[in-house]
Amino acid sequence: MRKSWWKILCIVIIFYVIFMGLMGPVPRLAIINESIRNTYFHVALWLAMTTLLFASMIFSIRYLNKGRIGDDDIASELAKSAIFFGILGCLTGSVWANYTWGDPWPNDPKLNGAAVGILIYLAYLLLRSSFEDEQRRARISSVYNIFAFAVFIPIIYILPRLTDSLHPGSGGNSTFGSYDFNSDIRRVFYPAIIGYILLGLWLAELRIRIKVINRVRDEALITSDKIS
Amino acid sequence: MSSGILNEIKTLIWKEVTLEWRQKYALSGMLLYVISTVFVCYLSFNLRRNQLTPIVWNTLFWIIILFTAVNAIAKSFSQERYGRLLYYYSLCSPQAIIISKIIYNSLIMLLLSGMGFVFYSFVMGNAIGDMGLFILCLFLAAIGFASVLTLVAGIASKADNSATLMAVLSFPIILPMLLMTIKLAKNAMDGLDWSVSTDEISTLLSIDLIVITLSYLLFPYLWRS
């Protein structure tokens, strides 16, 4: 039971979000109607993904400074769970767009930016897989990871705001915050972000443990080969 | 200290230029690449000249420039032998190397995109309203492409399948820059007032700055491996 409180918290929050997200009170708006509940899933997933990618970049910087291979493991697994959230965010957004904008993939700068962002991180995974040597892979992919995050933020958050986007908060559209009179949304939205971040950390943690176990096992195999 | 780095940069750029001049096939190969690509596009559109709208003209030009840039800069690290790289490693600071490579690649890109533009407008026609703005756009794009691709080339040259990796790594990263450039170039073609495009110019400039600073900071780690 070592430090498992945050996993319990994660489960509680996720169930709270699912329950309140589907049943709780929401503001009534034209066109969007009940689909505003997707804020708890789609928007929160994107924010969780950005947080995880930011954490991944921090660990990459730490690896370059200290040179511990464990930091690179953490960075890569955080990026992987972030990509998973990104794909989920794309799917939930696609469902939402289908019902409010009438097209599962409207030609919108933010959507295209999101697709490019996911491509950048898939390229990161490809880069990782093309090295045999562990230290070399860690160093070079850390450099790329930092570079990728610096490009990712303009693609997702800055460029769509300069152009006309269907998304709220850009091109003169207002955000949902201005409709949220009773802060019904906020009461579920903020926990949702925390819940997804915890879930992402949990996913990453499991994979990091597998990696560490594999590494220890490989080393044990090598040493036993030498002895025999 | 700073004058030492400046001296190193100057020497390194000079070294690149003499190296390029000695093996002329690389540069002339790239020039021929641009010209033949433009010519292929010209012949392909020959069937329907009237369908070459300004938007198609603009997009086609920048895609040609993008592919030229990727091909020209991909070899900036793989060209030199391992032993020689080790020799530079012992002589100069990595910052001097990356800055000199970026400056040199920017010069190459300016030359290539300038030549490409002249030939492109020669065969495909030229419908640009504001020449000054278009040249500024060409200038910013050449520097931006060169600086992004130099770092990516450095990363890709460390791996085995560097040609594929170069394209996969660089295309998504270069995309925001490409889109901004295409938009700015479209404004220039329509001859819009410069005040309309200040947003694009400042975004392009800031992306260039971010990329160059990051290259400067990150390259030493890449160089050590």
From TrEMBL, chain B:
UniProt-listed GO biological process terms: cytochrome complex assembly
Superkingdom of the organism of origin: Bacteria
Recorded GO MF terms: heme transmembrane transporter activity
GO cellular component terms, A-Z: membrane
InterPro entries (alphabetical): Cyt_c_biogenesis_CcmB
Bilayer topology: Multi-pass membrane protein
Pfam annotation, one family: CcmB
Transcription recorded as keyword: no
Transmembrane parts of this sequence: 25-43, 55-74, 109-127, 133-156, 163-182, 202-223
Record carries keyword Transmembrane helix: yes
Keywords from the UniProt entry: Membrane, Transmembrane, Transmembrane helix
Compartment(s): Membrane
Family stated for the protein in its record: Belongs to the CcmB/CycW/HelB family.
Protein name: Heme exporter protein CcmB
